[in-house]
Amino acid sequence: MSDATVSMKAVSPATVGPATIGHATIRPEEAAHFGALAREWWDPKGSSAMLHQLNPVRLGFIRQAIDLHWGGDIESVRPLSGKTALDVGCGAGLLCEPLARLGAGVTGVDAAAENIAVAAAHGSGSGLAIDYRAGELGELGLGRFDLVTCMEVIEHVADKPRFAAQLARHLAPGGLMVLSTPNRTAASRLLLVEGAEAVGLVPKGTHHWEDFITPDELCDLFRAAGLDVTEMRGIGFSPLKGLHLSDDMALNYILTARHRQ
What does the mean pLDDT of the chain come to? Predict the structure, then answer.
């Protein structure tokens, strides 16, 4: 193990509850739901099995987006060296750790303190210097970051316009944002909610279909926050390919955005 350490600067759980309802974007019950699953995040056969299958697909998209955005060496194993990254809704660090290995100085934020505790412990065991914070993004006083990621989070957010504006405020000039989320379609209701939760691929109560957001709606939110969406791909599923990047956005999609020029 290296000498790198992981810091965890947790805030009181009250900061994500009714005490800050005027500024809160995350519902307390959503944070509690995922916090209860914290100890299983790193088990590829546990309640987060779907995320373990999804993570390589998202990382492939992120890596290509990094290379295109900054015009770096596509052969480099540390294309984010010298850059900062913020992962919003980081869970137990499934994306933070790969971003750190790509060379970024990573900060992970999650509304569930239980997730942050597990993330910090796992990162420490991996010898990665990741700054983990528990609480509401808008309450933590963080600065701006070269890369902002937000994977499968906005569908759990109560105040989506405020949340989109907070994401934009944390993106540095010239920076890159990457976000993924389920689409609100008949297919996503059938497969992601009624199907995946029914057979145990996703814990029951994880998804609320009415809170899913369509690509057009998300583009409008980002536009109002001063961001332009620059690329969008679907994440599809087939028995032969499993989860994979696709032109079909009926189930899930992933996009890049940047400040309006």
Answer: 85
What are the distances in angstroms from CA 71 to CA 115, 180, 219? Answer: 34, 23, 25
Say if residues 183 and 215 touch (Cβ distance below 8 Å): yes
How far apart CA 217 and CA 205 sit, in angstroms, is: 23
Cα separation, 69 vs 96, in Å, equals: 20
- Could you list the residue range(s) of the whole structural domain that residue 213 is in? 7-259
What pTM did the predictor assign? 0.84
Q: In the numeric block, which tokens belong to residue 186? A: 């008949």
Burial of 204 (0-12, 13-18, 19+ CB in 10 A): exposed
CATH number assigned to the domain comprising residue 79: 3.40.50.150
Per the structure, the count of domains in the chain is 1
Whether 123 is covered by a domain: the verdict is yes
Contacts of 58 (CB under 8 A, 6+ apart): 95, 151, 178, 180, 235, 254
